[in-house]
Specification:
The protein has 328 residues and is mostly helical. Helix content is 95%, strand content 0%. α1 runs antiparallel to α3 and α2 packs antiparallel against α3. 0% of the residues are buried.
């Protein structure tokens, strides 16, 4: 019974070992097929990678020194362009400040000009009043002169009448009676008295006329001097205003030219940067493709190493089973 049980166990173990060996053989065959297919796929992939590298060139063997120099030059140009843009912006700010200063100066000069115009209008009104007063005084002088002439004429007529009356009286006295007093002396006294009054009145009128004329001359000279000063000041203000307007126009034109230059510079460097960015994006895309290919190869290689390790384990197990079977 023990021998039968041992025989049955041995037969069962033998059948089990045969089934295991058959299973291992099947698995080994499937693994070998898979290994062959993977080797074929790996060879195909290596051939494709080799062809791709032959077309594009190996990445590790590329010389990027020329690109590095170009990139350095571009970085320097970008830095210079940034500095130039900063300078241009600073000039624009300075131009804006200068334009604001000129605008304030222009407004101040305009207010001063308006004040000067108001002063000139006042001076013109004063000059008109002075001219009217002068004309009035001249009319008064003419009237006084006419009155003086009229008074002289009346005086002469009165003197002539008195002389006629005295002559007639003298004649009558001589005819009627003897003279009681010296009429010639009386007439001389009257003539002297009237002449003294006339001379005094003439001197007073001449003094008054000279004073009024001197005052009018002083006022006219003062008004003329003020008018000349105001006109010279207005001329100077006009020249300053014209100079400021010319300078403002030049600053505005310079600002426009600087803005146009800045826009052209920005457009040019933006186009260059877009080209360089497109080139960099293409290189990055190519690098990503290469990196993904390398990662795919790494994953496949890891999978192959895993399969190799499992195959080695299976082979080791298969070898152990064979050795155990050989020992038995």
């Amino acid at each position: 019974m023990a021998g039968g049980c041992y025989g049955r166990d041995y037969n069962y173990l033998q059948k089990t070992e045969k089934a295991t060996m058959q299973n291992l053989n099947d698995r080994l065959a499937s693994y070998l097929d898979k290994v062959h297919s993977l080797e074929a796929a790996n060879a195909t992939l290596e051939r494709q990678i080799r062809e791709y590298y032959e077309k594009k060139g190996l990445i590790c063997q590329r010389d990027y020194s020329c690109y590095l120099n170009t990139i350095d030059c571009l970085l320097e140009k970008i830095k210079d362009a940034t500095i130039n843009n900063g300078k241009i912006l600073l000039r624009i700010d300075n131009s804006k400040l200068a334009a604001e200063d000129f605008r304030i100066k222009y407004e101040n000069e305009l207010s001063i000009q308006q004040c000067v115009k108001a002063d000139i209008d006042n001076l013109r009104r004063i000059l008109d009043k002075t001219c009217l007063a002068k004309a009035d005084l001249e009319m008064q002088i003419c009237a006084l002169q006419e009155e003086l002439v009229y008074l002289k004429k009346n005086h002469q007529e009165d003197v002539a009448a008195i002389m006629c009356q005295l002559t007639n009286a003298k004649v009558c006295v001589e005819v009627d009676a003897a003279p009681q007093q010296d009429l010639k002396k009386v007439l001389d006294d009257i003539r002297c008295h009237y002449e003294t009054i006339i001379n005094k009145h003439c001197r007073e009128q001449e003094c008054w006329f000279k004073e009024k004329t001197a005052d009018l001359c002083k006022d006219a000279a003062t008004s003329t001097e003020c008018l000349e000063t105001s006109m010279s000041h207005i001329s100077e203000l006009r020249r300053n205003l014209q100079n400021l307007e010319i300078e403002l126009q030049s600053q505005i034109s310079m600002k426009g030219a600087l803005e146009c230059s800045l826009a052209e510079t920005e457009a040019r460097y933006s186009a260059k940067l877009a080209c360089y960015q497109k080139y960099i994006n293409a290189l990055e895309a190519e690098l990503c493709q290469v990196r993904s290919g390398i990662e795919q190869q790494g994953r496949e290689f890891a999978a192959l190493l895993d399969i190799k390790s499992r195959l080695e384990q299976e082979i080791a197990t298969y070898r152990c089973l064979l050795e155990n079977q050989g020992n038995r």
